[in-house]
Amino acid sequence: MEQPLKQPFKQSDFSAALITSISEAIRPRGSVGLAINFDFDFELGAAVTRLGTFIVGSQLVDGKSILGLGNYIAGAVSKLFAAINESDGLTSTVYDEVGNVIVSNLTASKKMRFLNFLGAMLMINGADAERSYTTAGGVITTGGAFDLANMPGSNLCNLATVFLDRVYLAGDTANPSRAYYSGISDGSAVSWTSGNGYVDIDAGNDKGGLTALGRVPGYILFFKARSMTRWNYSSAFPEELISYGAPSQEAVVSAGGVCAFYSNSNEKDKGFFVTNGGAPVPISHDNTRPIRKWVDAIPASAEADIAGRAVNNGFAWSVGDLTVDGQVYHNVELRYNRILNQWSVRTYPTKFTVYSGFLDAQGRNVTVAGDNDGNIIELDRPERYVDYTTINGEPGEVAIGFDIRTAPQKHGLNQKKQVNDKLVYETRYGAGATPYMIVDGIKTIECDSLKKDVGEVKLPENGHGNYFEYGLRGTVQGKRLYLKEIEVPNIVADSSYE
Questions:
Q1: Most CB within 10 Å of its CB: which of 46, 307, 321, 491?
Q2: What is the pLDDT confidence band of residue 234, given thresholds at 50, 70 and 90?
Q3: Calpha distance 147→481 (Å, rounded)
């Protein structure tokens, strides 16, 4: 005999954010099964659509990927540098944010890394002579704060960082396991002829050459393709800390006293990790807040182009196009709040290839990304509810699409159920969004769009099955949409389990 459930289904907490690949029995309260372009840390408990993007300056080269991005800051001066191939693809150039050429005729398609230290900006790509920039001296190739003429590696190093007032270089193809370090800075420059040296990191093993450098308090971290080693200038602890590596420098982000990175060094254990200098801890899998299906969707061919950035209280990685549950999502960014242990998914009109902080002309500290269409893009721009993009080299804007739905619900019963009559949504600025219901992962029942912030929508037909997902999708309408509650008032249980 059919009977209605005594309690309707309500989800009024979304604070656990996106979680996949977990049993309903242990799924954390407040989680969702899908969330595209929502933030869960803006108003805790609500799901809020993200802010939009805007271009910094103008498009540099149509159709070309940004190869490197760095913010030069010295006193009151702030400049943003971007490396990109020229339109013929034969050389690369470093521009500033307003399109001025800083360095030209560089080797094409080489990733450029930038290091800001002692009032100068180092430019290094592993193929061309190292250069540095200062406001007073412009671009130089000898001397300066980095003692350029004496740098080791014969212009082959493509990794650089600072640790304990020394500059470290790595990526030398002639000595792939070697990390060089300078003498201690005297406050204006470092020396590569006094107090300098090198260390070979597990030379001769099968872990590959050095691919990235990271930092945490007390240690510099040396990543190979399949290992990570920590170093405090005196010794390594141990020679190999763990068999997790990183594919590139861009996949490694150091911020907030920890280092986060992507790794695919071990079978069935690929994903994102965090370390404070000890054994890395997985944050995307093997815990109670996994997003395994999104990580598993990252193709091996895309791993070399994964790029990470620091966000408020966490990290984000651009991972390219992913196919999840048969749906293709373009230009995906996976975002993690390490304080709240929340994951969310964003999509953008173009793929981000590299990130940087930027102190702009208004004195704002913003996050910018270089994309695969020659643009430098400011992320999360206040009061901006569309994304900037270029179409055939022409500037344009596109709406921010969103999609969110609950995890599959069996409503506490194993027998079949029937969802009747209506759904109720509580939102802010939700008018125009489309509610929908998915039955048993197969049948989608779409309702008329919301007419007001809090309102009920009639189901065009009843849903009959075992598992139900309740969603809301559309595009933002000049404001950030807040989803606060989904209610299903009428659920009737069957006597049958089939």
A1: 307
A2: confident
A3: 52
Alpha-carbon span 441 to 96, nearest angstrom: 49
pLDDT in tens, 260-300: 999 998 767 899 999 999 889 999 998 889 999 999 999 99
Task: Please confirm whether the linkage preceding 176 is cis (ω < 30° from 0).
Answer: no
Res. 496: pLDDT tops 90? no
- Quick check: 153 and 172 in contact, CB under 8 A? yes
Q: Are 138 and 150 in contact (CB under 8 A)?
A: no
**What single letter denotes the amino acid at residue 327?**
Q
Q: What pTM did the predictor assign?
A: 0.95
- For residues 142 and 122, what is the distance between their CA atoms, to the nearest angstrom? 12
CB count in 10 Å sphere of residue 44? 12
Bridge pairing between strands 307-311 and 281-282: unpaired
Q: What is the 3-state secondary structure (H, E, C) of 392-422?
A: CCEEEEEECEEEEECCCECCCCCCCEEECCE
Amino acid identity of residue 181, one-letter, is: Y
Six token digits for residue 409: 């619900």
95 and 61 in contact (C-beta within 8 Å)?
no
Using DSSP's 3-state secondary structure scheme, residue 135 falls into coil
Average pLDDT over residues 146-156: 94
